[in-house]
């Protein structure tokens, strides 16, 4: 291994791919409480010490696999308008993350002891998609809200509700959150 880290496509990448594949296969076959590091290692064809050395424990491994599952595989939809793009993205996120598999991914991320690692990557993925949407809007001549505000006012409420609220959001709720974000704001009233 070089001082810069593992070589892309080298042994490290092969081990990661094998271990991630093993976790995904095991998650499809059995309940989470039956998944162990030795079981993952055996399925991946590596030793348990390899898994512990790289991920520390099962919780961190599951968080890493969850983060990898959230990596976007395409640019966000281009509907021709900022509202349309944000609604399409928020609805897709809501639909995917409120599924049983999506909830499991979010819970694995939250359970990770080092949230700055896998969870930070997921935040970067979401912000990257939102950056693409807002850059597209600027190219159309619009003035989109900052990405941080979109995260706080649209994505965070969706994620919080998926994780902690018994009543699920409907797709219309994603559009409602976007509409509230984009609603014209009243000018502050100056004391007279």
Automatic annotation (TrEMBL):
Keywords: DNA-binding, Transcription, Transcription regulation. Pfam families: TetR_C_11, TetR_N. Residues 13-73 form the HTH tetR-type domain. InterPro entries: Homeodomain-like_sf, HTH_TetR, Tet_transcr_reg_TetR-rel_C_sf, TetR_C. Residues 36-55 bind DNA. One of its GO terms (molecular function) is DNA binding. This is Transcriptional regulator. It comes from Frankia canadensis. The lineage of its organism: Bacteria, Bacillati, Actinomycetota, Actinomycetes, Frankiales.
């Amino acid at each position: 291994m070089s001082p810069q880290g593992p070589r892309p496509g080298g042994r490290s990448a092969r081990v990661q791919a094998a271990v991630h594949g093993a976790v995904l296969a095991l998650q499809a076959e059995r309940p989470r409480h039956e998944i162990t590091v030795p079981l993952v290692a055996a399925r991946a064809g590596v030793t348990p010490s390899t898994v512990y050395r790289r991920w520390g424990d099962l919780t961190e491994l599951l968080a890493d696999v969850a983060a990898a599952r959230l990596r976007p595989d395409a640019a966000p939809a281009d509907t021709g308008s900022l509202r349309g793009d944000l609604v399409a993205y928020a609805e897709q996120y809501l639909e995917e993350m409120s599924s049983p598999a999506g909830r499991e991914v979010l819970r694995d991320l939250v359970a990770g002891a080092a949230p700055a690692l896998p969870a930070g990557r997921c935040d970067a993925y979401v912000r990257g998609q939102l950056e693409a949407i807002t850059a597209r809007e600027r190219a159309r001549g619009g003035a989109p809200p900052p990405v941080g505000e979109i995260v706080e006012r649209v994505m965070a409420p969706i994620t919080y509700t998926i994780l902690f609220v018994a009543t699920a959001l409907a797709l219309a709720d994603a559009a409602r959150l976007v509409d509230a974000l984009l609603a014209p704001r009243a000018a502050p009233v100056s004391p007279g």
